[in-house]
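User: structure tokens for Nucleoside-diphosphate sugar epimerase/dehydratase, please.
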Amino acid sequence: MPLIARIKLFLRDLPSIYKRGLMVALDLLLIPLALWAALSLRYGEWFTDFNRAALVFAGIVAFTIPVFIKLGLYRAVMRFLGWKAMEQIGTGVAGSTLILLTILLLHPQAELPRSTFVIYGLVLFVLVGGSRFLARRLLGASSGGKGRERVAVYGAGASGRQVVGMLRQGMDYEPVVFLDDAETLEGREIDGLRVIAPRKSIGKKDLTPLLQRLGVRSILLSVPSASASRRREILNFLEPLPFHVRTVPGIEDILSGKATLDQVREVDIEDLLGREPVPPRPELLGKCITGKAVLVTGAGGSIGSELCRQVVEQGARRLILFEVSEYGLYQIDQELRALPVVANGEVELIAALGSVLDERRLQRLFEHFAIDTIYHAAAYKHVPLVEHNPIEGLSNNALGTLIAARVAARHGVRHFVLISTDKAVRPTNVMGASKRLAEMALQALQPEHPETTFAMVRFGNVLGSSGSVVPLFRRQIADGGPVTVTHPEITRYFMTIPEAVQLVIQAGSMAEGGDVFVLDMGEPVKIDHLARRMVHLSGLEIRDEEYPDGDIEITYTGLRPGEKLYEELLIGEAVNGTDHPRIMRASEDCLPWRAFDKGLRRLEKDMERHDLPAVRTHLGELVSGYQPHERIEDHCWKD
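Assistant: Done. Predicted tokens:
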């Protein structure tokens, strides 16, 4: 390692008390130097009569250092020096200047020109301020740029400048240029970096060779205050460029402690698929939660855990976490117990292991805790897995829902909200059929138990869930491919987990009894298009017949058992709007309890005998539109 780099590391690693000592020692030299320079400039020749001015020199040093200490000039970290430090330096220099003027007035024997204090103040500001910023420059620069990835930072605002400052302290990235759409910044320099307005001045065609000449390998997106549509617009512009596009966290994540400013990560798919959020209605969010006892089944899952977070946020009196997975329950329990409202006892947290199929376990919970609201998220949701394990899927999803709903109704629960799916509409798989059966169970129960308001909320895929294609695609891209897509035309609806849960809670509050709510999922997304965008934003090219030298191949594996090309949200066309623009109320046909119970009992007998052909037949009689896969996929049945 070069000598200068070793010195930098030595100074950085010094204990803070020694660093402060070095700063004080430096000022002990700079203060008299400034006074000597001021006197020399005032007389127009080198000042040498130190005997006459000895008390002045001693006094200015003796009184200025305590002023600097009081103002905190020695508490600042050199590497992160900013304009606040300049204000402190200016204040300290002004104080030292007044001290000099006072000494000159009280010590006329020195016979020094009183106007010296003005020149002294200017010189001292330059010396003290300059020494601090020189130290910042030397210590802030990374010790050796070899191996650091050269990056362009998109966004020259406050966040972008902070990102550049943080990256310069690290060993991984070297910012070399700003990209910003503000035409007024084009060609200017900020923090030593040139600013380019790519879309206004040069466009995509000329931007690529320019960035390549600078050695740029990645573009870091730092526009935390931009709207969803604005971020999507920027990403659409950057996608065709041959650079890895990544992002830095928003200010909300930084303030909440979820991330640090220099934590570079892949572009959130929400930025590609998301839309402008609709502000929630507080009265709907809190209606079934605030001050109440709430139970969440499947509390450790993707949807269930977010439900738990928002239930705590809305001020529930008590939250019961019900989960069959010990690990899942442990994770969400530990996360919530770290929240202040839980830690200080404002929200009582109960972690309960158990299955929704265990009626006695549910019975005990309802007997011990007066539960007002249930959000039923417990379900097997992976289509191929349920297709291979149909009896287990039907039991958990349909019978488990019925058991939980009947126990809830017997114990006077006011609100029961089922998390349903778009796959329940004209299902081609057991998972979708089991969820439609769960919906029908609640619809049939509603007239039998009018004191409990049952509601179902139906939506599509959520980004970031355990079954999402997004993390799968990311892993495949990181491994060099291939990226696997089942079919080039397959489409899906997508929504972020927080938005979906927020809408679920609001929909449940609007329920009147037996309602089927459908969330507005926006436009369907072609999965093949999504995969290609993720490859491009990784700075890679698709390898195909047209580009045989590309980086990542996309392979089509064929539709899996029970999988549809297109998902639907409604069975019929009868749908009505609600007071919320993203929530609709569907009118779906349902069976009366007696007919439904009779059909379900017959289905249960088939399940007990493991008679899968009969299960499929009777499931089709119960669930309208069920069109099963051409063959039975259950592993035991195949053997």
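User: Anything notable?

Assistant: DSSP finds 24 helices and 23 strands in the chain.
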